[in-house]
Amino acid sequence: MFGKKQESKASDLTSADAFAKGQKIYDRMERGECKDVTSELHATFGTKPKKG
After folding, report:
1. Quick one: which of 14, 17, 22, 38 has the most CB atoms within 10 Å?
2. Contact 14, 22 (CB under 8 A)
3. Which helix (H) or strand (E) segment is 38 a member of?
4. pTM
5. How many whole angstroms separate alpha carbon 27 and alpha carbon 8?
6. How far apart are CA 12 and CA 48, in angstroms?
7. 32: phi > 0 → left, psi -120 to 50 → alpha, else beta; which?
8. How does pLDDT run across 14-39, given as a tens digit for each residue?
9. Is 80 exceeded by the pLDDT of residue 40?
């Protein structure tokens, strides 16, 4: 409890729902409709970019 970091649960990117979301972004990328793939992926999956 005390003194231990809580682990954040990562999204299961292998689920059918996550796959469908990623496929939509990939399809938009293939059609040239997606300007910033990284930003769209982060927005879709609720992740934050790593600081460099």
Report:
1. 22
2. no
3. helix 37-45
4. 0.65
5. 30
6. 15
7. left
8. 899 999 999 999 999 999 998 899 99
9. yes
